[in-house]
Amino acid sequence: MIPKFEAIKRAISSEIEQGQWREHQQVPSENALAERFGCSRMTARRALTELVEQGVLVRSQGLGTFVAPFKSQGSMMAIRNIAEEIRERGHQHSAQLLLLKQVAAEAEVAIALSVPNGSAIFRSCLLHQENGQPVQLEDRYVNPALVPDYLAQGFDRQTPHEYLSQVAPLTQAHHLVEAVAPSEVQQRLLALATPEPCLQICRRTWSSQGVVSYARLLHPGSRFRLGGHLMVESTSR
Amino acid sequence: MIPKFEAIKRAISSEIEQGQWREHQQVPSENALAERFGCSRMTARRALTELVEQGVLVRSQGLGTFVAPFKSQGSMMAIRNIAEEIRERGHQHSAQLLLLKQVAAEAEVAIALSVPNGSAIFRSCLLHQENGQPVQLEDRYVNPALVPDYLAQGFDRQTPHEYLSQVAPLTQAHHLVEAVAPSEVQQRLLALATPEPCLQICRRTWSSQGVVSYARLLHPGSRFRLGGHLMVESTSR
DNA sequence: ACACCAAGGTTGTATATACAAGAATATACC
DNA sequence: GGTATATTCTTGTATATACAACCTTGGTGT
């Protein structure tokens, strides 16, 4: 038996996903929702509150509650995987494996992975989608010395990140975030009508053994952003 | 006047930070807290709920509420100011003050600063240059209640960030990073020949008193990258 | 025409209450 | 001793109510 507030959350999410309630549109007031779902205002309110925390809705005292502009959001502070983040938003994640093979390391990648120039490394290329819409193009290079069975994976039930986390637990990571224009191929893969700015994250991850992987994650600027919250603790602790 | 649940949150946080309540230790039950703080159980419960969402506490039905183990992941991005970063690279930082005045808060800004819509706030606009080349367009809104003397500053020897850090020491910050196309005005100010992708950072900063400032920092994608390093400590015990 | 105020609708805070569900402990029973 | 069972304490869900704070709108008075 799912709780009422959960049922209300899903009903509201559903309305939004199916386009009944559009971006910036006002959703029914707490009292109206209470009446519609046959519950008290407090229960309807709880559903709204949790959706606001998830970034699905925005509220303003005295004004009303509105559908938030949709944009997937990744976390800056923690290394999370995109599938998790998408599922946490209550959306559907899917991915297509575009490429998975052994290649010779080019200069940039060789340096990033700390392997000799031209040595054999593994490369995978995946397109991640949120509710069927492309949000991330993942171009990843993997150190075969640390992850010898990488090519044997299917990546249909597990993302590369999830697999790597199991095989070689991450101890360090380095990020580089920049705004770039997509190449024509990238633009086509991300299903962008026009060449809009993209957010690229280049991520190097280490396990205790050394550099595990180097990934270039490309996101359409209109559909993805990075968020981070920082709390400064009092210096006493 | 701060709300009761907020006061309770701070009291609990304080207990934890000062080591009175240790990791994994059980905190008083909701009923006990209600009695201690002279409020209803629902109010005490709300305080706990929000602290659980912040990761300070963990709850388990039937068992109790406990102090969460401290986070092992360090922050990935320090709040730095652009002038420092530039000087650290051995380059020369300069800035032009483009605008500094009182304005009426538009909807988006009003929400970000948690002030009533249309109320008077301060706005500043600066262009930061590295060796004479524009690297950041800083569009900042400041809460006058917390920083009454903001307009009296010259910002020729001190950046707004530096000034704010002194006047209202920061306790929290929230970041949103996205890739956007610059407007014509922005493109001209940043001295971009073509409309190249830009990296925009929207930053909200809090002091203990509340939201201090909301800033939109726009950087040319070709001249600015955001880096971050993360180290995972061994999570023993 | 303009400034001001009142009314109504919205979200925000706070309380009192009730029962459900989970977990540990004490108790009764065999 | 071992096994149920009952009790009690905890968090989880749900409701009804009251008032505060905020925003918009419309009317009122000047």
Folded structure, characterized:
Two copies of one chain form a homodimer. The model of chain A has no long low-confidence stretch (mean pLDDT 91). Chain A is of the alpha+beta class and 237 residues long. Chain A has a six-stranded antiparallel β-sheet. Chain A has a three-stranded antiparallel β-sheet with strand order 1-3-2. In chain A, strands 4-11 form a two-stranded parallel ribbon. The longest helix of chain A has 14 residues, at 4-17. Chain A has seven helices and eleven strands. In chain A, strand 9 (198-207) and strand 10 form a beta hairpin. The first copy, chain A, has two domains: 4-67, Winged helix-like DNA-binding domain superfamily/Winged helix DNA-binding domain (Arc Repressor Mutant, subunit A, Orthogonal Bundle), CATH 1.10.10.10; 72-227, Chorismate lyase-like (Chorismate lyase, 3-Layer(aba) Sandwich). Chain B binds a DNA duplex (30 and 30 nucleotides) through residues 3-5, 29-31, 39-43, 45-46, 48, 59-65, 116-117.
Question: Could you provide a short overview of the structure?
Answer:
Chain A is an alpha+beta fold. Chain A has seven helices and eleven strands. Chain A folds into two domains: 4-67, Winged helix-like DNA-binding domain superfamily/Winged helix DNA-binding domain (Arc Repressor Mutant, subunit A); 72-227, 3-Layer(aba) Sandwich (Chorismate lyase).
Helix content of chain A: 25-40%
Terminal-residue CA separation of chain A: 43 Å
> What profile does the largest beta sheet of chain A have?
6 strands, antiparallel
Oligomeric state of the chains present here: homodimer
Structural class of chain A: alpha+beta
Task: Kindly report the name of the CATH homologous superfamily of the largest domain in chain A.
Answer: Chorismate lyase-like
Q: How is the largest sheet of chain A built, in terms of strand order?
A: 5-6-7-10-9-8
Top-tier CATH class of the largest domain in chain A: Alpha Beta
